[in-house]
Description:
Layout: E1 10-16, H1 22-37, E2 43-49, H2 58-65, H3 81-85, E3 89-92, H4 97-100, E4 108-111, H5 122-146
Parallel strand pairs: 1-2, 1-3, 3-4
Helix pairs in contact: 1-5, 2-5
Amino acid sequence: MTDTTESEPTRIxxxxxxxxxxxxxxxxxxxxxxxxxxxxxxxxxxxxxxQPAEHVxxxxxxxxxxxxxxxxxxxPREVTFEEIQQSDYVITMGCSPEEVCPAGWAGENRDWDxxxxxxxxxxxxxxxxxxxKRRVAELFDGIAGTS
Length: 147
């Protein structure tokens, strides 16, 4: 009989307070990285907020549309304590890790300290979007290098 046990996928959580801008962009770019790198079976993605907004910020939807990505159907969601506890990497977008999960977690936290795009000009939102895309690619480069 062959051993069919597989290791659990690496879980990455992209967390923000409202889950309406930065974390939505990061999650979307991470989904692209999964597909491009053929890592769907190795990495699981989570996104959420501690106080989710009603909808993704309009300026974020427009900025993503400008690069050919439609996130208009996305809805901010609340991230659960269990999701954070079960994550290998918790990427916060500029809010403190204590605000996201005061009890801590077993995984690694990285705070990207990004400006909130809510209410910003299209040029500023595009700058944040491009920075997030670069950071997500670097994150995947690092994870791929350690697996």
